[in-house]
Amino acid sequence: MDELTRQATRQWTLAQPAVSAFIASVVRDFRDRDDVLQNVAVAVIESFHAYDPGSPFIPWAIGIARRQVGLYLRRRGRDPLVFDDDAVACLAVAFHAEAQDRSAALDYLQDCLGSLEGRAKKLIGLRYREDLKPAAIASQTDMTANSVAKALQRVRDHLRECIDRKALEANVQ
Questions:
Q1: What's the rounded Cα separation, in Å, for the pair 36 and 159?
Q2: Domain 1-102 = CATH 1.10.1740
Q3: Alpha helix locations (H) across 76-144?
Q4: Where along the chain do its domains lie?
C-alpha cells in the first residue's frame, strides 16, 4: 500500500462514524445506507489526492458524502419521502459543525487530562489506558471498588466541567 492510500485510510477511519451518521440522517433503508457509505469510501480514497491537508478532513469527506447522497436521491427521485437538495445541504452543514465541536472537545479533553494530578491521574490511567474495571483498580490502589467508582465519577465530572469551561472561554474569544 502506498503512503497516500495509507494516509487516506487513516483519515477515513476517523471520519467514517460522522460520515455514516450523516448518510443515515438522509437515507432510510439500511441496505442503501451501506451502499452509499461504500461509494463514499471509494470516492474518498480515489479523490484523496485532491484533499488539502491544511483543511479539516471530516467536512471534506462529508462534502463527498453529500454528492453521493445526491446521486442516490436522484436515482430515488420518485420516492415522496426523499429529502431535497436544500435539506441535504442543511444536514451537511449541521454535521460539519458537530464534527468541529467534537474535534474541539477532544482537544480540550487532552488539555484537561494533562492537568490531572495524583490519584485522579492514576485512576483515569488505570481505567482508560489499562482498561481495568473498578474492582481490579481497587486491588491495585488499596481502595474499595465502590470508592474507586465514586472517585472516577468525580474525576469525569471534573473533566466535563473543564471541557465546558474551555469551550466557553474559546467562544468568548
A1: 37
A2: yes
A3: 85-114, 118-124, 134-141
A4: 1-102, 115-173
**Three cell numbers, residue 140:** 491495585
Q: Does pTM surpass 0.90?
A: no
Over residues 50-99, the pLDDT tens digits come to 999 888 888 899 899 988 988 888 777 655 555 666 776 777 777 766 76
| Sign for the pseudo-dihedral over CA of 121, 168, 22, 25 | positive
Q: May I ask the CATH architecture of the domain 115-173?
A: Orthogonal Bundle (1.10)
User: Who's near 39: CB < 8 A, 6+ residues apart?
Assistant: 68, 71
Quote the CA–CA distance of 82 and 74 in Å, as a whole number: 9
Three-class HEC string of 23-83: HHHHCCCHHHHHHHHHHHHHHHHHHHHHCCCCCCHHHHHHHHHHHHHHHHHHHCCCCCCCC
